[in-house]
Amino acid sequence: MYTASLSRTRPRVLPELLLVTALYFLYRLGRLLANGNVTEAFANADRVWRWERAVHLPDEASVQSLLLHGELPQKAANVFYSSVHFPAMIVFLLWMFYRHPAHYVWVRRTLTLLTGAALVLHLAFPLAPPRMIPAFGLVDTGHVVGPSPYGKVDTEGMANQFAAMPSLHVGWALVIAIGLIAAGRSRWRWLWLAHPALTLFVVVATANHYWLDAIVASLLLAGALLIVRRPEAVETVTPFRRRVRAPRPEPDDA
Hints:
Layout: E1 2-3, H1 13-33, H2 38-54, H3 60-64, H4 71-83, H5 85-99, H6 101-124, H7 141-144, H8 168-183, H9 194-205, H10 211-227, E2 235-236
Parallel strand pairs: 1-2
Helix pairs in contact: 1-6, 4-9, 5-6, 5-8, 6-8, 6-10, 8-9, 8-10
């Protein structure tokens, strides 16, 4: 099915920009409200560590050991953790908005549900990341090698270091991969799954998250995808694409 114009399915720019901006500030406010409960965050870290060992999940230290052979891999992982999360989501949303508007609305609704549910869990279950717990035997690669997006523990700042559960780094990376796979047609589109796989490795190897943080983020995203209806497949025609009609056969004078 062809549509005459992309404007039939693409939201208007200004209202969409205002909506996304409002959602961003609500996200930042939610993280600020979730900050401050240091004692509970460290107690929950011990619980999560014991739960993971009880179900025989791999020790996060075994993953981190792959980075500790030199400063270069540690620095590369730290840069990825600090620099890719938000820019990748912004580029992804812009791409979906302009190239796949129907899927953009689906992605934005899914992302809103996922992030909202994550903020509720941040409030209910503050969690210190494994890099803060010396007993776990993990290295804070951000502070040792750099760069690190965090300074000292600051319960008044906007960067909530106790919002480890769930990992929105992993959750958002999965949204990007799923959105691009759903909207794409190439047989190579499944390679986008490398993005959340690499993100999972980085957040665990840099000791910013537990395995369970990623598992919970995946479950929340699965719930959001069940709630938000996926758009029907619609083929759009860009201004540079036209259907070519076969020429009519000329009448035979004979």
